[in-house]
Amino acid sequence: MTDKRIAVYGGGERGGKEALFLRSYSADVTLLLPIGEPRPGPHIAERLEAAAIVTINDVPDSFRFQSDAVLIDTPDGALRFDTLYPALGSDIRSELAATLGADRSEEGCLTVDTHQRTSVPGLYAAGDVVLGLDQISHAMGEGGVAATTIRNDLDEGKPTWR
Ligand SMILES: Cc1cc2nc3c(=O)[nH]c(=O)nc-3n(C[C@H](O)[C@H](O)[C@H](O)COP(=O)(O)OP(=O)(O)OC[C@H]3O[C@@H](n4cnc5c(N)ncnc54)[C@H](O)[C@@H]3O)c2cc1C
């Protein structure tokens, strides 16, 4: 990423914020707004302009990947970037846990205690489905905490002696 020509593909506040984040890695960041996606609000638009991030609207999902570049068709013609960063967000798949009665945040994330226990005894959660950082290292750390808690909770009920 560092000092590369970066394209960020994503709409609304999310796309704008991701482009601003990546501006710390490169002076050459372009925000590509997918067709039909909302534009960033005035506050983000102002920051994008101040950061010299070019925004191109109504970009179709037409990408041609080469060994060292990606070509993207835009209303301004085909543009070449070193890298493409998708900023399309994520869907929180907590429905299954919700059917068991697990508490969720307004966004739909599972709420857990400091040991990854959900509100349902015997049900634990870790990673992006829990409100948090959305980073691999964080998800793995929470997984480790959950595994230890599961072991300890099982041991409480019935000692796991050999
Ligand atoms: C474009 C993008 C770039 C990213 N870049 C980085 C990065 O550079 N560094 C970083 O640390 N993090 C990055 N992340 C975030 C990182 O990918 C996530 O934080 C991490 O993958 C979370 O792991 P997870 O196991 O919680 O969830 P996931 O990796 O999403 O795994 C959940 C799995 O559960 C499956 N699943 C969902 N519902 C069900 C169901 N009902 N039944 C069975 N299976 C189900 C899904 O198919 C999926 O395989 C990025 C994310 C995106 C989208």
Category by helix and strand content: alpha/beta
Strand order of the largest sheet: 3-2-1-7
Number of strands: 7
Outline: elongated
**Helix and strand sequence:** EHEHEEEEEHH
> What Rg, in angstroms, do the CA atoms define?
21 Å
Fraction of residues in H or I helices = 25-40%
CATH T-level topology of the largest domain: FAD/NAD(P)-binding domain
Poorly predicted regions are: none
Count of runs of 4 or more consecutive helical residues: 4
Q: First CA to last CA: what distance?
A: 51 Å
Bound molecules: flavin-adenine dinucleotide
Tell me what the structure shows:
The chain is α/β, with parallel strands linked by helices and 162 residues long. It folds into two domains: 6-86, FAD/NAD(P)-binding domain, CATH 3.50.50; 95-157, FAD/NAD(P)-binding domain (3-Layer(bba) Sandwich), CATH 3.50.50. Helix content is 29%, strand content 20%. It contains four helices and seven strands. It has helices at residues 12-22, 42-50, 95-99, 136-157, and strands at residues 6-9, 29-34, 54-59, 63-65, 70-74, 77-81, 83-86. A four-stranded parallel beta sheet has the order 3-2-1-7, with helices on one face. The chain has a three-stranded antiparallel beta sheet with strand order 4-5-6, with no helix packed on it. Helix 2 links the parallel strand 2 (29-34) and strand 3 (54-59). The radius of gyration is 21 Å and the shape is elongated. The mean pLDDT is 95. Flavin-adenine dinucleotide binds next to helix 4.
Summary, kept brief:
The protein has four helices and seven strands. With 162 residues, it is an alpha/beta fold. The chain has two domains: 81 residues, FAD/NAD(P)-binding domain (3-Layer(bba) Sandwich), CATH 3.50.50.60; 63 residues, 3-Layer(bba) Sandwich (FAD/NAD(P)-binding domain), CATH 3.50.50.60.
